[in-house]
Amino acid sequence: MKGFFVTGTGTNEGKTFVTRGLARHLRRRGVDVAALKPLETGVDPTPVDAQALAHACGRPELAYLPGFYRACAPLSPFSATMRGEPPVPPTSSLITSLDQVVCDIMLVEGAGGVLVPLDAKRTIADLIAALRIPSLLVARNGLGVISHVCCAHEALAHRQLSIAAVVLTEHGPADTSQDDNLQALRALLPTPVVRFPSAPNDDDALAIAATELASLLVRNMYLQ
If 0-12 CB within 10 Å is exposed, 13-18 middle and 19+ buried, where does residue 102 land? Predict the structure, then answer.
């Protein structure tokens, strides 16, 4: 599998915006890209994020692949299971479902942050490790993001997981700390840090917002 796992410091950090934007950007360049969300909660009954990703890459069927995890409760998968919803399938089953998708580049969006529990023993980080693809660590750029990013980055690095980039989104309210956060994280981390500027909730606009990220991935030979 060649691609990226889009994870974050938490929920509502902009992972879906980043994944949609990068998917549409690559599609415009003629790349056969698949964008998927194998784990989604808050599905009542539509997997909204998975649908948005599938639309961005022009493959609507990807939102409804068999073998993916869907839960109604807007909770972590583990918490949803504790409420009586089905358990998350074995990691091997999730990977088998992803392996059925034919593409040049696969973008896999996670649920919530790096250490969100899938069950009592597995986290999102364990799924990233099993997939053996580099991650994109997404965080909303605002006051407090420095600590949030450093904690999530350390959790990934401790597990010797490859981090292709830290992506700071600006989709929330404007924050006077944004420029300082960017410079501080670039000084603190060995991983490249890029901006994902605010953009309308539209695939083509998000594709433009993904330009800096895509250029970085090309420069660092993750993409051609």
Answer: exposed
The domain made up of 3-219 is a member of CATH 3.30.1360.10:
no
- Residues near 58 by Cβ (< 8 Å), separated by ≥ 6? 27
Tens-place pLDDT, residues 134-172: 999 999 999 999 999 999 999 999 999 999 999 999 987
Q: Which residues of 3-12 are buried (b: 16+ CB within 10 A; e: fewer)?
A: bbbbbbbbee
pTM of the model: 0.97
Predicted pLDDT of residue 47 = 97
3-state secondary structure of 14: coil
- Quote the CA–CA distance of 73 and 154 in Å, as a whole number: 29
CA dihedral of residues 61, 67, 70, 75 (deg, nearest 10): -130
Find out whether 215 and 208 touch, Cβ atoms under 8 Å.
Answer: no
Domain range annotation of the chain: 3-219
H or E stretch covering 147: helix 145-158
* CA–CA distance, 217 with 194 (Å, rounded to integer): 11
Query: Is 121 annotated in the active site?
Result: no
The 10s digit of each residue's pLDDT in 81-121 is: 999 999 999 999 999 999 999 999 999 999 999 999 999 99
Secondary structure of residue 198 in the 3-state scheme? coil
